[in-house]
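Model it.
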Amino acid sequence: MRAIRLLLLIPAVAALSGCVAAALPVLATTVMTGDAVRDGKVTVQKDAVAPAADAATPPAAPNYTEQFVAAAMFAADRAGTGQSVVPDPAAEDADTLVRGCSESQQPALLVDLDPGAAALRPQVATLSAPQGLAPALAVARGKGLTIAWTSVLDEAEAPLVRNALAASGLDPAGRDVLLLTRDPAESKTDRRDAALSEYCFVAMIGDQRGDFDELMDYLRDSDGPSPFDPLFGNGWFELPPPLIARADVPTTQPVAPMATPEENP
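Modeled.
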């Protein structure tokens, strides 16, 4: 019934244009060895080879500061409005698409940790954060928002997750909320909804559509229009995953667990 009600709602379309690029060839010249006799002496001209072009400089990593800060500012502006960005299972039209919030709920920004359809794996690689996310989270905390992190990882992985967040600079104080699954049958949507008794999620960041609600994974056309289209860029922010594995810098030793504050609600 939840899916039927929510799927009765809206579409959207976008178009892109192409571009043309040109290339300039690089030439190299070699001067062959030759012998010359002058004043009875033989002189040898050395091979002369044009210097090789410098190796191409790798492109700079994309900077998403503006987009991450926009998400944080949206969350700050929405706090106190009495509206979350969590779909309402009882929704019957676009005007009642999301759940309301009470004064007892703490406004929070929810960030999905899992890259794509996989689970975060903090134990196998050094993790780094995309540019712009740490300062955006600092802005959100400064506005009085709680930062909540969610993943399909089991709660037993909490020490490793906290270590990764601290080491990457995303949660240096180790005070953010972790919403990890409590049993194999629990989905991230279930875990989020269970936390609604304490938190009002006024913005969400994920790197794929299903991060915002599991219903998105059950659409017939995963890239087609959905009833939630009005929320993208307006509470739902599709951005790179917050912790990116650098496989070339493996973790060689287990990380000692940090002292953790009070965990999940």
